[in-house]
Amino acid sequence: MTQPRPSSDPIFDVVSVKGFGDLVIALTCLARVRPECRHRIHLLVGRHLQPLLAVLDVPFGSTVLDHPDAGPAALFQVRSRSPLAVLRSAVGVRRGLRRASTANGRVLVFDEMDARHRFLAGGRTARPLPPSDNLYRSWALFLDGEKLTLPAHAPVPMPHGRRLHIFPGAREAERRFSLDLLRALVSEARQEGLEPVVYTVDGELPELNDGSLPLEVMPRDFGRTLAAVKAADRVISADSMTAHLAEHLNKPVYVLAPREKFFWLPLSAATAGRHALFSQPSAETTLPEFLRDA
Asked: Which GO molecular-function terms appear in the entry (predicted)?
């Protein structure tokens, strides 16, 4: 039975209006919240995140914000969006937050706190996550500090299955896998007795459709992507949402990227050193060990 909430306990309104991966990271970390404390967590999400939220098992209340952005908030994409779009986004998200989080005793939670986040808070009580070298660890510091969490899970052991699912796509072109890189990954995986499959979404990376890869093209559907990650024994991913879906589903994941972004790595990849740069020869990385550990 749910215990009554002491009046001194704040409700944390977790704000997620950026990318899909940011939401998955938050949900993965919030999964450690004790059942009797879940009423103290409420999600305030951008409209573009609603389809993803719908396919994930979310044990918290949520509100979809009424704001003008059809995708990630332009306020946080100042390099690629017009000044007018950024201004409209800032005003619209602030209004949406004001309508959704009005009661006393509620605290807005942002992943960081700069001038943009202070503007969105509009004078209301707001907290950033504590600083750390990795976003998952920042979430752990926040939740543990509020005494909301169950003990951390033990690391997931590498499975004995042979299904290796590779997700080369990313929103930014520089983070996507090249055809040559994918051919090398597939060849190395097969040499280790694995069964690699490369997954892309419809319209993404059309240059991969040359018949040289074990390729499966999925519709643009979050449920289908989630199912593909769930069916894997292990995952190799670009620096994108699929890496964090693998973490969310307790799948061993290896991240390949054009440059080091330790802060954004899935926690298991960061802790076990399961990440490398495109420019690094495979033999100089931990990838061979990841593929052999079957």
From this structure: transferase activity
